[in-house]
Amino acid sequence: MDPDSSGLPRPLYDALHREAQGLMRRYDVSERTVVSLLHQSENTMFLVRDPARPEPVVLRVHSQNLSYHSAPSIASELMWMQALRRDAGVIAPEPIPARDGSLVQLLSAPDLDKPRHAVIFSFLTGAEPPPETLIDNFERLGEITARMHRHARAWTVPRTFTRHAWDFDAAIGAHPLWGRWQDGMGVDPEALKILTRLAGVLKRRLERIGTAREYFGLIHADMRVANILVENDVTKVIDFDDCGLCWYIYDLATALSFLEEEPTVPALIAAWLKGYRKVMPLQREIEDEIPTFIMLRRLLEVAWLGTRRHLEFAQGLGAGFTAGSCRLAQDYLRRFG
C-alpha cells in the first residue's frame, strides 16, 4: 500500500514506520528485515519480511483512539485468540512473542502523536471471498461463528482477562466507543429525526431481550467479509481487535456490515443460520430480532465513518451511507416501531 494513500499525515506515518522498523530489534529476526505498509484502517498494519524466514508476519500498531487499546485489554484479546486456536480449531493469526516473551509492545517517540501499542501476528494466506461466493461462504461463516460462541460459553476466563462490552450505551448510547452517530457524515435534521427514533426503538427492544448468559457473551464483534480469508475450502478469521461482550447474534449483523441494502441479504442470513445450526441451536426469540441487531450495527457504522473521515474507505461511502441508513431505518420502523 502506498503510504500517501493511508490517510495519515506524512510526518506521522514516517514516525510510525520508523518506530515499527526499530521494533524489530526486540524480535528474533535478521538485520535485513523490512517493514512496509500493508493496510490502514482503525489501526496501522505493516507487513514484515525477513529474508532469513520463509513467511512474512504482520505487525499491528494500534491507533490508541479506543478505550480498549490498553495493554491489558489487548493481552486479553490475544488470550482468546490463542484459546480458539488451541481448543476450538478456529484458524486465526498466532501472536508472536518478542525475545523476552512479551506479546504486547509499546512504541513511543517525541514525534509520535501518542504512545501506541503493537503486536506481531503470523501471516495467514487466503483472500476475501468474492461476491459470487458469498452465500456459500456465509454458511461456513455461520458454522465457524457458532464454534466460537460455543467456546466462549464454556471457556474459563483467565483472572486477568478484561474486555469491553458492546451494550447499547457503548455502541450508540451515552458512552459510544466509536463516537456519536449524530456526528456521522450527512446527518442533517431530517436524518437526525429518523435515526433518533430508530435509536429509541432499538434501546427498548434490547432492554427487553436483556443480557442473560444464553444471549450475551464474548464475541468477535467484527465478522465482516473483510475479516474473513478463504483458501480453497478453508475459512480463516482475522482482526479480533473489537472482540468483547455482546449479544451473540450481533456477530451475524457484523457479517452484513456495509451490505445491508444488498438484495442478497435474506439469502445470506439464511445461509449463516444454516451453518450456525450445524453446531448449536439459536433461540427463536433471538432469530426474530435479527433486524434489530442489523440496525444496531448500521447505526454504529454511521458513527465509525463519521469519526474516520480521513480514511479513503469512509470518504468513498460519505453522506450516501447515512441516506441509505435512513431508508433502512424507515423500513425497520414500519415493522418494529
From TrEMBL:
Signal peptide positions on this chain: none
InterPro entries from the UniProt entry: Aminoglycoside_PTrfase, Kinase-like_dom_sf, Pseudomonas-type_ThrB
GO molecular function, one term: amino acid kinase activity
Entry-linked SUPFAM superfamilies: Protein kinase-like (PK-like)
Keyword Transferase: yes
Database matches in Gene3D superfamilies: 3.90.1200.10
Domain annotation Aminoglycoside phosphotransferase: ranges: 38-279
Key words of the record: Transferase
Family: Belongs to the pseudomonas-type ThrB family.
Name of the protein in question: Aminoglycoside phosphotransferase
Protein source organism: Hypericibacter terrae
